[in-house]
Amino acid sequence: MSAAPFDLVAVWAVIIAFGVLMYVVLDGFDLGVGMLFPLFKERGDRDAMMNSVAPVWDGNETWLVLGGVGLFAAFPLAYAVILPALYLPLVLMLIALVFRGVAFEFRFKSRHRRWLWDAAFAGGSTVAALTQGVALGAFIQGIKVADRAFAGGPFDWLTPFSLMTGVGLAAGYAMLGCGWLIMKTEGPLQQRCFALMAPLGLVVLGFVAAVSLWTPFLSPAIADRWFSWPNLAYLSPVPLLVAIVALALWRALRRRRQALPFVLTLCLFVLSYLGLGISLWPHAIPPSVTIWQAASSPEAQRFLIVGVLVLIPVILGYTGYAYWVFRGKVTGAGYHS
Amino acid sequence: MNGFEAADLARIQFAFTVSFHILFPAFTIGLASCLAVLEGLYLWTGRAEFRRLFRFWVTIFAVTFGMGVVSGVVMSYQFGTNWSRFADATGDILGPLLGYEVLTAFFLEAGFLGVMLFGWDRVGRGLHFFATCMVAVGTLISSFWILAANSWMHTPAGYAMRDGRFVPADWFAVIFNPSFPYRLAHMVLAAYLTTAFVVGAVGAWHLLRDSYNQPARVMFSMAMWMAALVAPIQLVAGDLHGLNTLEHQPAKIAAMEGHWTTERGMPFYLFGWPDMAREETRWALAIPHAGALILTHDWNGEVKGLKDWPPDQRPHSTTLFWSFRAMVGLGMLMILTGLVSLWLRSRRELYHARWFLRGCVAMGPAGFAALIAGWVTTEMGRQPWLVYGRMRTLDGLSPVLPGNVALSLALFIAVYAAVFGAGVFYLLRLMAAGPDHVAPPASPRGEAAGMRPLAAAPAEPAP
């Protein structure tokens, strides 16, 4: 393995991080659409909202499976420690995803219980978003490991910090969903989303700031990563770019741009994600296990990376094609005009 | 003692979630191929009933596939939450296999599913057919990888041990491990049979109401051809799988047969009650030499008995004895159904013999029942091993509290019962409504069909 021209383990860390980011932004917007459901009472609006994500949600959720399975393959130790540590939030997330996933089909099959599947869709999306945020916070703040296994208690994940990241990520997903609906709908539904977007954006920026300020206090290593010289100079573009994106978003909303609010929200997610990555690198399980310690054998990593490098571009290609087939405004809002 | 309780609960949880899950993909593997054939026939012949049948079954496919996806996401996290020591030990082997399943199958299915379900009006016929084929191919590729992973746990090969962990030494040997070809063939055939009997039951149900219902005739006829051709092939595949198991997991075979003492020319028990404590099969009704004939294809072949293994390495014979017989019995009924259908077809009574149509309705769930019985047989027969002969089930458990496992198990049972109960209800209602209720022919975007993406789905008949 020492003969390899590059650090395979680091490449794998980037691949897993990419997979998780794809999941966060893609399922993020369709979970966000579900979270906004209760704000729209009219059946036509709800049909349009659901139809805007129905053809793609399944592919979006596949990135979550890739994240889980990729971790299992490339960093089995991380998989084997993180999942038991986050047992309850993950089980709740899975159950929430069951409810909102079946709602796509059941809602249109039900005669008298449509409200039930509306509630399953909205509730499932909200709980999934919250638990993912809580899991993220618990991961950032660190997990106790001993003898290649989780060594903490069943409620270690539950802290003020993780609750804050839970609400923060849920707000972020709602903002992504709102941006998606601005892009995919028209008429009164779109106008309401325009009105929602600015306050949502402010809330999300507030959470981004709170997490950014709180995280360095969790560990001296993270504070050192950001505030030591010359890192400070190299890394200062990240918060600066966040500010620029926020301003651009403000302008885009005032000018009633259709696609730009969604795209800029995506940028905001990517930047925040990058910031977290900078804080946590190179840990597979913060604060004690690095990616090299958690990695599977080179034989395993080499075997799967061939498939990843060949197939991920192909997957992105046909996933892009599927989005392109369903491009344009959703026509489902026929009833309420 | 706590560890033991958590292990029991974790095993029940895995068995419960995976048993529920397998029902959906087993049906969608067969149905996806069926849909590809229906759409291909429609494009080839232009006959309206093929299209009508496609639109009918694709709505059923959509509901089933949705349930398969959400119950499958749960599975991809079960290894880690409850079986983390197993995950850590086998991640190098099983992780890449499942990784390839996601990359080559799940994305393919999910990517083209949207086009297949909602793209009827948005892409050309050829492209739509291509999407349907990709979904079908995806389901088959998925079975390839997941069964390679499962088979490796039964007949591990191509690995080396490094610090107590399994690491790959020869990927070809890992994937094509000794039991894999047999298990794959047996499972894919089982999926096709499961679908055939559901399709046949729906066809029969509608023929009982109107024996001149053309789409019902087409689906019933197709299903009965499948039963007549595939059920006998499955018997051969199952027999070969059994011989393979005898070679690699003889304890499983002994438990399946309630066979305690190594002997030549062992009998086959039609009935009996293997008693684990007394180490004998009570109240046995035996056919002399038949067991040896079936298992070794030799009148006086020798088969090892369960007593050759220490008690803590014996699979639970009482369960296996009966789950195996349930599977084989259902398989025999399927073969019989196929044969009778050929006979009735030759007399031109296939669509009119009401007794047979009723029988086929009753056989609708037979595939699912046989599938579960078969999985119970093979997986309980793997015990007490998680990786056969190498890692014990108890050693794979996560360091989690029994309370956590119990709570999540209770949640899964309650949620699955409610959600999948509702799903099965909707499925049965769609099936009962039949192809006549399928949405009107595809319309240009913006008209009725375009209002909902479920243009393929007849939601609810107008109230």
The H-and-E topology of chain B, N to C, reads as: HHHHEEHHHHEEEHEHHHEEHH
CATH class of chain A: Mainly Alpha
Q: Overall pLDDT of chain B, averaged?
A: 89
Largest sheet of chain A: 2 strands, antiparallel
Q: What is the number of helical segments of chain B per DSSP (H or I, 4+ residues)?
A: 14
Largest inter-chain contact set: A-B, 72 and 83 residues
- Binned, the helix content of chain A reads over 70%
Multimeric state of these chains?
heterodimer
Report low-confidence residues of chain A grouped into runs of 5 or more: 333-337
Overall structural domain count of chain B: 2
Q: In angstroms, what is the radius of gyration of chain A?
A: 20 Å
Order of helices and strands of chain A: HHHHHHEEHHHHHHEEHH
- Spans of chain B of 5+ residues with little confidence (pLDDT < 50)? 440-463
Structure commentary:
Chain A is an all-alpha fold and 337 residues long. Chain A has one domain (9-325): Formate dehydrogenase/DMSO reductase fold (Up-down Bundle), CATH 1.20.1630. In chain A, 77% of the residues lie in helices and 3% in strands. Chain A has helices at residues 8-36, 43-53, 57-74, 76-85, 87-109, 114-141, 160-184, 187-218, 220-227, 231-235, 237-254, 260-280, 291-294, 298-325, and strands at residues 145-146, 149-150, 283-285, 289-290. In chain A, the strands form 2 sheets. Chain A has a two-stranded antiparallel sheet with strand order 1-2. A two-stranded antiparallel sheet of chain A has the order 3-4. In chain A, strand 3 and strand 4 form a beta hairpin. In chain A, helix 1 runs antiparallel to helix 6 (114-141) and helix 7 (160-184) packs antiparallel against helix 8. The radius of gyration of chain A is 20 Å and the shape is globular. By secondary structure, chain B is mainly α. Chain B has 2 domains: 1-177 and 401-463, no CATH class; 186-396, no CATH class. Chain B contains 14 helices and 8 strands. Chain B has a two-stranded antiparallel ribbon. In chain B, strands 3-6 form a two-stranded antiparallel sheet. In chain B, strands 4-5 form a two-stranded antiparallel sheet. The termini of chain B are far apart. Chains A and B meet through helix 3, helix 4, helix 5, strand 2 and helix 14 of A and helix 2, helix 3, strand 2 and helix 13 of B.
